[in-house]
Every structure is written in C-alpha cells, then in structure tokens.
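Friendly challenge for the regulars: who can give me the structure tokens for this chain first? No prize, just bragging rights.
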Amino acid sequence: MKIDKRITPAATKVSAAKGKGGGKGTTTAAAGGGDSLTLTESSTRVRALEAQLASVEVTDAGKVEAVKAALADGSFAVDAEVVADRLIDHTKQSLRKRPRKK
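First reply, four minutes later:
Bragging rights claimed.
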C-alpha cells in the first residue's frame, strides 16, 4: 500500500460578521479555490488606520535630545527611589502573568 503525503485542503467559506459598517462589504475570492473573505467598511477602515499608526514615530525626539545633552554635560540625575519602585512594579506584573504551578 502506498501512502500519499499530499494533503488537499477542504474548501471553506470565511466571512466576517457585519458590524456598524451598514452591511456594505467587499468580497475577495482566492485565486486557487472557492474561499472568500467578506470585510465591512469599518473593518477595512480599521486596517487602514492600523497601517498608518505603524508608521508613526513613538519616541519624543526632543526628550531624547535633552537626555543626551544632560548625559554629555554630566547634569543627568537618576532618582534611585523611582527606579526601585518601577523595578518592583515590573516584577509584580511579571509574577502575576506567570502561570501558577500546582
């Protein structure tokens, strides 16, 4: 008996639930089969906004330059109490997220 290693995917239909977009959706069919995807206008808009947000600069260039200047001239001061508090908070959050052993 010969074993065939080829897997043929089952044809499935995927559609998104109609949200506040008013039911005006776009349908796209895959080139190789009968699969389709339906997106509402609101989900299409969300994807476009996500793409725009991905290109936004997250850092504050002015603050970075101020810290660099303070480091260069030796006037940068570290508040050890604030650093310690944030380390403790971070550790607490990490421990809460970790799964418990039974």
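The helical segments are 41-54, 61-73, 80-97. The first helix runs from residue 41 to 54. Your move, everyone else.
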